[in-house]
Automatic annotation (TrEMBL):
Ranges for domain UDP-N-acetylglucosamine 2-epimerase: 26-347
InterPro entries noted in UniProt: UDP_GlcNAc_Epimerase_2_dom (IPR003331), WecB-like (IPR029767)
Name of the protein in its database record: UDP-N-acetyl glucosamine 2-epimerase
A Pfam short name: Epimerase_2
Gene3D superfamilies named among the record's database cross-references: Glycogen Phosphorylase B
Similarity remark: Belongs to the UDP-N-acetylglucosamine 2-epimerase family.
UniProt keyword terms in alphabetical order: Isomerase
Taxonomic superkingdom: Bacteria
UniProt lineage: Bacteria, Bacillati, Chloroflexota, Ktedonobacteria, Ktedonobacterales
Amino acid sequence: MRFASIVGARPQFIKMAPVSVLLRQHHEEIIIHTGQHYDYMLSTNFFKELSIPEPDYSLECGSGTHGVQTGKMLAAIEQVLIKEQVDWVIVYGDTNSTLAAALAAAKLHIPIAHIEAGLRSFDRAMPEEINRIVTDHISDRLFCPTESAHQQLLKEGITQGVSVVGDVMYDTLLSIQPRLVDHARSLLASLGLTPGNYMLTTIHRAANTDNAAAMQSIAAALNKVEMPVLFPAHPRTKACLQHYQIQLSSHVRLLEPVGYLDMLALQYAAYRILTDSGGIQKEAFLLGVPCITLREETEWIETVQSGWNILAGSHWQAILDAVAQPAPQPPQHNPFGQGDAAQRIVQSWL
Ligand code: UD1
Ligand code: UDP
């Protein structure tokens, strides 16, 4: 069979890596990169680090308002799909690239496989929530990372083509894990830090970056914590820090986005992780590091139920209170599967 895997943003490259390698053992795959992310450290670096084949199509759609960006991608993907005559389109997660790819495929009557189906934050003001709902409702195979995601699809009346396979990000993490301890040691030494004696933060959600008061309040919390804070910043976050003229104390180190191995190593050895990222909430759980989520809700409810993730929102006092909480007991159960999600996904076409 002939597959088109359509990706465009940093977490999608990380999700596709284990699937692509197995898919190519049995099928033909073309990779379409929408160009939603284009900076080297948000895009090409992950293809190199994770040995993902170069995209067959780089559509270079770039940034824009939601309508402009999604519209450009929709038109460009449609052209490729008309030409390539694939049997399936595979989409990942919940970005505008996911939505555009799913819409393009659905209109051309090409079946869609959605990896990371069934996630919901129940906040329709969040752009990703719209992307997820629409994509799930027009997909033909829905691969859920967790049982709760499966249950959500059933509640929405989606019963055909659904399976729980585990989380593909866990597969990718496991492929890197043997290198983590050594890498963390050397990376931290180069930064003059020791394990467990710093915090790590990332921020990029629109609900925070587009809200000056939220960003100021998060920055106030970071400025008050009594530990070095590493802050690899997404370009939109860096831009908004400048725009809102937010001052960070000297113990908060603003960095360029880092590579995947570096990021996992920095998470692994952190005392606490403060983030609004979806993927990092899961990775913190899988690496056994307490996470403070800078949002009011999360799709990854298991991380909260296990006690490893605290939803603090953006208020500085709530963030500091969450940081002061003791680490929870080790979880009894890993809700994200066995680390063989990619195998289960590819097997479904054998
Ligand atoms: C997107 C996804 C989000 C995902 C995140 C992963 C949507 C709606 N959002 O958010 O779900 O969690 O990717 O990181 O799809 N920019 C650059 N260089 C780049 C890419 C972006 O400078 O390579 C800047 C541009 O100013 C752009 C802004 O970042 O306008 C936002 O980029 P965009 O892709 O629209 O959204 P993300 O915040 O990256
Ligand atoms: N990540 C990375 N470098 C960074 C920030 C994040 O490699 O500087 C990785 C992170 O470890 C995780 C993924 O990118 O695997 C999460 O992507 P992001 O936070 O951009 O998106 P989300 O998961 O929120 O959609």
